[in-house]
Amino acid sequence: MTETPAFQDVPPQSEHVTDYDEAHFVTYLRLLDAAAEGADWRGVVRLVFGLDPADDPDAARAMHAAHLERARWMARSGYRQLIAKD
User: Fold this and answer.
1) How far apart are CA 19 and CA 25, in angstroms?
2) Is residue 11 part of a domain?
3) Which domain holds residue 74?
4) How many CB atoms lie within 10 A of CB 25?
5) What is the total count of domains within the chain?
6) What is the pLDDT of residues 20-60, one digit of tens each?
7) Which residues neighbour 15 within 8 Å (Cβ) at sequence distance 6 or greater?
8) What is the pTM assigned to this prediction?
């Protein structure tokens, strides 16, 4: 089983797919699935990022929101760059 690379508080913001995006592709899929199911962000933070949201709720929520937004960008347009690489 492959270990998930470390998370940044905020994923890199770029109009191009970054190495971070590629390393966290599965994370982005998990976040999109959880959002589609209406999962509570606190549970998602525990499961996906391995953090206790009670330790710093504002930081945990911001981290979740930033990564979910990046996941949505990947689903809207970033994926095209991945396809074009092949």
Assistant:
1) 10
2) no
3) 19-85
4) 15
5) 1
6) 998 999 999 999 999 999 999 999 999 999 999 999 999 99
7) none
8) 0.88
